[in-house]
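INFO  loader      accepted 1 record
INFO  loader      residues=419
INFO  predictor   begin
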Amino acid sequence: MKREVVQELLLDAVKEAPVFNTHEHIIPQAEAQRTIRDLWSLLKICYVRLDMISAGMSPSLWEGDYGWEEAAPYLPAVAYTGYYRMLQGALEDLFGIPSGPWTRSTWEELSVALARANADPNWYELVLKEKANYEVSILDQYWSPGGDDFDARYFRPTLRVDVFLNGYDVNLVDRHGNCLAEMAKGWSVSLESFDDLLAMFDLAFQRTVDQGGLCAKLAMAYERDLTFSPVSRNRAAEIFGKASPSPQEIRDFQDFMFYETITRCQRFGLPLQIHTGMLARNQHSLAHTNPVQLNSLFLDYPDVKFILFHTGYPYWREGAILAKMLPNVYYDLCWLPVISPAAADRAFDEILDLVPANKLMWGGDGHSVEESYGALLVMRKVLTKALARKVAAGELSFSSALELMQGILSQNARCLFLK
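INFO  predictor   done
INFO  writer      dumping tokens
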């Protein structure tokens, strides 16, 4: 069969397939009902705003409530990026607007539709269950590590551990507004000593497991490189609570707490998701994100399952080779199809050749249900195209392509997380 015919058949099949969604940041529905009033307010939490900033838009504009006049000068520059096309495709599908670049008219039409949809108490159910067919979505609520502000009908939590790695100062407010001292008050626990911090870290893992959590998550690549070295407990205890610790002391404390993270993953039987590759901000160092920095660590902890997020793009080959070599390293395709469908299309050919199929999985990695659904639409298209090429070339049977697709979108993650 021709590739195009095979892809259409695979697309028909994938629309009915359940999805185990490994990664989301979707805001609570009550927050969406309160804040998403138009297209501007949706863009404030979507990736395309980052391209608009890169194109020259002032980041401060996103702190206010504006609209078409402020967005229009930058839309032509981003209208062909993966971020824009992903969200555009989702909104066209959900609201039936004509395809093509946004105009003032479509902006106004979408604003009305988004306000109406997000005011509907059934909107999350419609998008996440009826449209996307998500069995479950793993939620990284980085704004509330260990918190319980999620809807268990749709989400299972992961524990974002970064705030604990910066626990040398319990009054520090991190980039997401988290403060360990405030968290301790909310959890009614003492946080006066280093031992208290470690006990609170235990509690965070226990809370996550008790709430049905499936894993832990590290995103320290937004703050530093991924090379971690063993540090003694005494050294970390000396740094805890110290006024004005040096950069080396901060690094040593983070290293100690990272190894404490791994021991808790061992104890609680949780995989560890790790952000690798490109960063979702208009700053930071890309060199910090190469997954190769973690190679020795993976070898030192063969009984812990590590999941490389975002394929490590642009270091996706390094990530794929690590997942190929090491039994305890898994490879999550989330975000890459959204960053660049073309890059994902090229990479998937090699990834399917390199990585054992049962180690591949995918998540939407969106902050809104609209963005998550758009990511799924792109993933369906890219994955079916790559598989169809292999069927047309005689490398795969159609039934094998179906099996691979179902594994990547659901079964592999089910086996890993629901063991």
